[in-house]
């Protein structure tokens, strides 16, 4: 799974696919309704590949790895609404799936985004965790650098 082309845009719901990257702006397409919009740097777009979750051991876990844990915990299905129905249930579920997350740095709003993004990516078949594919990519990148 490559999250480099999938963006979160500050102030906008949902996720976006990068369509083109121009000098002063990006053109992105909403995953849900396929509407294309221009995004400027002032909108603070972030690639999901660059986002991490804080953990108690002062390390961060990339979203890709978090999504993999969510995928495994949900048997490849969407997160059920009853597990994230309110703030108490949300925190409880987060602690079940990621018991070592930093409770002082990861806020309820972060959890809501995380679970919403997971469900969106799953709905659009953008989650795949083929370890052999990932290993081949890493090996190819290493060979190219040498």
Our count of domains comes out at 2
Order of strands across the main sheet: 4-3-2-1-5
Provide the CATH topology of the largest domain: Arc Repressor Mutant, subunit A
Secondary-structure-derived class: alpha+beta
Radius of gyration: 16 Å
Shape verdict:
globular
Characteristic key phrases:
146 residues; SH3 type barrels; Arc Repressor Mutant, subunit A; five-stranded antiparallel beta sheet; 7 strands; 19% strand
Report on the architecture of this protein.
The protein has 146 residues and is α+β, with helices and mostly antiparallel strands. It is 36% helix and 19% strand. Strands 4-3-2-1-5 form a 5-stranded antiparallel sheet, with no helix packed on it. The protein is globular, with a radius of gyration of 16 Å.
How is the secondary structure organized here?
Layout: E1 6-9, E2 16-21, E3 26-30, E4 36-39, E5 45-47, E6 52-54, E7 60-62, H1 63-73, H2 87-97, H3 108-123, H4 131-145
Antiparallel strand pairs: 1-2, 1-5, 2-3, 3-4, 6-7
């Amino acid at each position: 799974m490559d999250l480099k082309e999938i963006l979160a845009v500050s102030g906008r719901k949902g996720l976006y696919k990068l369509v083109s990257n121009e000098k002063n702006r990006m053109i992105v397409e909403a995953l849900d309704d396929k509407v294309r919009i221009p995004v400027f740097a002032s909108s603070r777009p972030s690639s999901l590949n660059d986002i991490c979750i804080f953990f108690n051991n002062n390390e961060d876990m990339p979203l890709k790895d978090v999504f993999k844990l969510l995928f495994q915990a949900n048997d490849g299905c969407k997160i059920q609404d009853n597990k994230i129905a309110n703030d108490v249930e949300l925190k409880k579920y987060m602690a079940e799936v990621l018991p070592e997350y930093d409770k002082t740095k990861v806020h309820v709003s972060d959890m809501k985004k995380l679970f919403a993004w997971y469900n969106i990516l799953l709905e659009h078949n953008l989650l795949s965790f083929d370890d052999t594919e990932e290993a081949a990519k890493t090996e190819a990148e290493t060979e190219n650098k040498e």
